[in-house]
Amino acid sequence: MEQLIKDLKLQIKEALNLEELSLEDFDADAPLFGDEGIGLDSIDVLEIIVLLEKEYGIRLANPKEGKAIFKSVRTIAEYVQANRKK
Amino acid sequence: MNIQVAGYGIICAIGNDASAVLESLKAGRTGIGPMHYLQSVHKELPVGEVKLSNADMLRMLGQDETTIISRTVLMGAIAIRQALEQAGIATEGKRVVVINGTTVGGMDVTEHFFRQMSEGNDLLPLLKKHDCGSSTRQMADLAGLADAEVCTVSTACSSAVNAIILGSEMLKAGEADIVIAGGTEALSMFHLNGFNSLMILDKEQCRPFDKSRAGLNLGEGAAYIVLKAHSEPEQGAPCPIFIRGYGNRCDAFHQTASSEDGEGAYLAMCDALQMAGLKPEDIHYINAHGTGTPNNDASESAAIRRVFGEEIPPVSSTKGFTGHTTSASGAIETVICILALRHQFLPANLGWKEQDEACIKPYGNSTLINSKFKTGICTSVLCNSFGFGGNDSALVISSVPTGSSPEENRFKSEQLAEATILSADGELDGQALRQYISAGEARRMSLLMKASTLSSMQALREAGIECPDAIITATAYGMLETSEKFLTDMLEQGEETLSPTLFMQSTHNTLSSAIAIRLKCHGYNMTYSQGSDSLRWALRDAKRLIETGKARTVLVGLHDEATPTLQNIFRRMGKPVPPRLYSRSIILGRSPASD
Fold this sequence. Notes:
The complex is a heterodimer of chains A (86) and B (595).
Chain A (H helix, E strand, L loop, with lengths): L1 H14 L26 H15 L9 H4 L3 H11 L3
Helix pairs in contact in A: 1-4
Chain B lengths: L1 E11 L5 H10 L26 H7 L10 H17 L8 E6 L5 H13 L4 H4 L4 H11 L6 E5 L5 H14 L5 E8 L3 H9 L23 E10 L10 E10 L12 H14 L8 E3 L6 H15 L6 E2 L2 H4 L6 H15 L27 H4 L5 E8 L3 E8 L14 E11 L6 H7 L2 H4 L4 H17 L6 E5 L5 H14 L6 H5 L5 H10 L4 E5 L5 H14 L5 E9 L2 H9 L8 E10 L5
Parallel strand pairs in B: 2-3, 2-4, 7-8, 7-9, 12-13, 12-14
Antiparallel strand pairs in B: 1-5, 1-6, 4-5, 6-10, 9-10, 11-15, 14-15
């Protein structure tokens, strides 16, 4: 799980071009969206959906499903672990 | 002065000419169905295709059917020929201008041959017809208008309405005798996959304003209207039609989403009504933009409610018939409005079943005739057309001319400031960038976006202006880096897992709207893409805005980039290689001498 979280942090940082964010400061439990936390938006949701399909073979048909899954890196990791196809 | 519609032509999923379109509209027959001509793996997505092959269209235009010409150009030439034939006016010796709204230009050809182009030089000449400006020129030539001046407006899905607005302004200013304005867009793998990456395509038939709506269906087509200044009503002319008012505004909210209260749409509709000299209750029908996405329809509904209050006239979106024909949609829907006025009927809002609290209730899902239309008193309609980047426009189309309006005040314009960024290798001054662009913003900006933002902000600062009244961009090739990346990803990795960020930054109007979002500028917002003439068109527009008193300050930018691929293509064609980045921003203002 910890390795998956580490991988996801790196993949998200790269996919979203979060150059200024150091992996040490990237808290696995920090909220990804909204003003408190990483501050991602709806386009980032779409990019993370692409990332999950590319890296883990997970297909999300509806961005709305993503809301609960994309709360933090840890919630994404839990979802990936349960649903990954590769 | 009144602007009269002298003729119109249309080709789309529900018919190859106006009478076929009229018949389908009256019968409530959709043109959306399984993909037939477009070569995409996404067969699950219904589309509104024109029911003709390229060979069919080449034959209709008297061309050899093996010629490689973009479908966008072919449909456009067919619709222009129809419009000219119907108008029946002589163009010889007249100043004729073709104003075309398009976004992807010759993309359907480019995406098909791109890989072969990188291997050999044989097909390279096809790329000369790729950019919007060249495809417009080719279309005008094919339509028999080789002597006409041409101009391309590229504000994504509102392009065609902005073409009609520009044409009307040119006629009012006495810059043309006859204008042919509208738009054309063929389906391409490029934008089908782009919209798909944004997850706004419905796998079912689209249902604008319905509670269960889940996205749009893409369509294709072209429509043009012939415009002229109206002097006296012609003897025996049946039901004259006028472009009575218009508005062009920017939502200045988000690159792909509309604001909750529909500010840009609201302002555009208000401007159109004001110019038309009409009150909301004088509008008898609204042809909504109504794409069928949850966001657009709710935002547009909020804007309509703000303008019309409790007394909303019948509204329908005709995208359930045609699909969303993107850049052409404004012209296709303008022609649908003209047909509604001339034949006194109300187009249905196909697919609507259940009321959504967030949305207006559209006019029926059948072809019931509205009472006002029955008695034949429908005279004025509103046509909405919105695009990515919040480029929101609206037209008032009417069978009654406006009363005599007083002559517009004339002012003089002058240049207030200028800033230029030229980078041969793509390096930008990091310190200057950080002054205006935060790291959070920069992460999603291509080099050209950064350069255009920087030169714009520098010019505005020099002029001492925080927010201009209008923003106009000129660009020959537009967002090349992001478009090229999206195209190569699609061709190399296939039509899955493509980046929505790249697509949403592929339209030419990305630059103008990004600056508007930054400055919260809700004023006039326009993008020209006519090769090396782009800046001339942009400056002409800016001067007109200032001279007619519509704006006091205008930010005009010429922004272009040459990616390594493009530079290589220029080299292989033996042409001078353009620099990696060029961005020049000019502030025009009202000259004090004219006050």
